[in-house]
Design goal:
By secondary structure, the protein is an all-beta fold. Helices cover 0% and strands 51% of the residues. It is globular and about 40 Å long.
């Protein structure tokens, strides 16, 4: 069955960086568009970034453009999210997504 396992979250100071990973299994990873979402306390889950399977093109939420980079390793079935210049408002649980499947999430906290 489809499994998505996120890792790489943690506590970081404002201006710092983190790289999230999502290890995927149970489906043909290279053939699917993949996304990162996040959910902050009291807020709805929001789309952060998408990477398309057909050409590797990407789309970002306005709030993270220029700071976050989504990428994928189709050989290893891993999705990444490089997050730079982090701000407190980036604090949330970050989820990997394909269609109706979600990982368990990884917590990112940005605080001094």
């Amino acid at each position: 069955q489809v499994q998505l396992v996120e890792s790489g979250g943690g506590l970081v100071q404002p201006g710092g960086s983190l790289r999230l990973s999502c290890a995927a299994s149970g489906f043909a990873f290279g053939g699917f568009d993949m996304s990162w979402y996040r959910a902050a306390p009291g807020k709805a889950r929001e789309l952060v970034a998408i990477i398309f399977s057909r050409d590797g093109s990407t789309t970002y939420a306005d709030s993270v453009k220029g700071r976050f980079t989504i990428s994928r390793d189709n050989d290893r079935s891993i999705l990444y999210l490089q997050m730079d210049n982090l701000a407190p408002e980036d604090s949330a649980i970050y989820y990997c997504n394909i269609q109706n499947y979600w990982g368990q999430g990884t917590q990112v906290t940005v605080s001094s």
